[in-house]
Design brief:
Shape: globular
Radius of gyration: 19 Å
Order of helices and strands: EEEHEEEHHHEHEEEHH
CATH topology: Rossmann fold
Bound molecules: adenosine-5'-triphosphate
CATH architecture: 3-Layer(aba) Sandwich
Largest sheet: 6 strands, mixed
Number of helices: 7
CATH superfamily: P-loop containing nucleotide triphosphate hydrolases
Strand order of the largest sheet: 6-7-8-3-9-10
């Protein structure tokens, strides 16, 4: 088990209520630094809610949730976390560069910061391989390219933790593969911690570590290899189904 002080994110008894329902139920997990942790589970299991709790935008959070050594939501964490929601937050009537210029000015305002902002924008556009499209209107880009603009915005402040909510949804296999390669590059070259959600189980194989969720509960917090070995299965998808059956059997026997 990981040392508490080493974890980029550490949850103990994390519980979230939305409206009148408990949507996360007493989760305990740790996200290791500089690695890619996949948050996987079916639609509606609570992945977005967990991510919102980590970035500090979710109400009615109880239990302990520490992020980069501070309680989630702490003001000092804002500049240290990049968050990409499911809906790309991109202005269609601005070019890629103008979008990035705008967000850079919000993040790092002031005339004196202009040269630093310009460098940060050029770097973020290059990071996501959009340099040839820097002057294209965002509204004219493909779905995959628009997702990469959102990712570039999140990379602007060189965050230590990147939280990506289903970044590959709706993308074709080639674009999905390219994005995953980019995530690995960011983690390996910069030591950035990445927490990325997906409901596509084959993406689990691309993660260093996995949090498998179902109906607001955590089924597993492990590496893909350990999960497969423990459940005697060939794929993470089969391991997930095995754990679902196991949990159902346990519930049946305690009734
Ligand atoms: N604004 C809200 N008010 C009340 N309940 C909500 C609200 N938003 C989501 N929920 C409920 O919380 C639960 C978890 O939703 P969440 O969006 O976190 O799941 P998810 O795993 O991210 O799903 P998806 O993969 O479809 O995005 C769901 O049962 C959902 O119906």
């Amino acid at each position: 088990m990981m040392n508490y002080s080493e974890a980029a994110v550490r949850a103990r008894g994390l519980t979230v209520r939305r409206a009148d329902r408990t949507v996360l139920r007493g989760l305990d997990f740790a996200v290791p630094p500089g690695r890619i942790t996949g948050l996987l589970g079916p639609s509606g299991c609570g992945k977005s809610t967990l991510m919102r709790a980590v970035v500090g935008t979710q109400a009615k959070v109880t239990g302990t949730l520490d992020v980069l050594g501070r309680p989630a939501g702490h003001a000092a964490l804002r500049a240290r976390i990049g968050y990409v929601t499911q809906a790309p937050s991109v202005y269609d009537d601005l070019t890629v560069r103008q979008n990035l210029d705008y967000f850079a000015a919000v993040l790092d305002p002031g005339r004196a910061r202009r040269p630093a902002r310009r460098d940060a924008v050029v770097r973020a556009i290059a990071d996501v391989d959009l340099t040839p499209h820097a002057d294209a209107l965002a509204g004219r880009l493909s779905g995959g390219q628009r997702s990469r603009v959102s990712l570039a915005v999140a990379l602007l402040g060189a965050p230590e933790l990147l939280v990506l909510d289903e970044p590959t949804v709706g993308l074709d296999p080639v674009l999905r593969r390219d994005l995953w390669e980019l995530f690995h590059r960011i983690a390996a070259e910069r030591g950035t911690t990445i927490l990325v959600s997906s409901h596509v189980m084959d993406e689990a194989e691309r993660c260093h570590r996995l949090l498998l969720m179902r109906e607001g509960e955590l089924l597993a917090d492990d590496t893909p290899d350990a999960l497969r070995a423990r459940t005697h299965t060939e794929t993470v998808e089969a391991a997930f189904l095995h754990l679902v059956d196991e949990a159902a059997a346990l519930q049946g026997s305690t009734r």
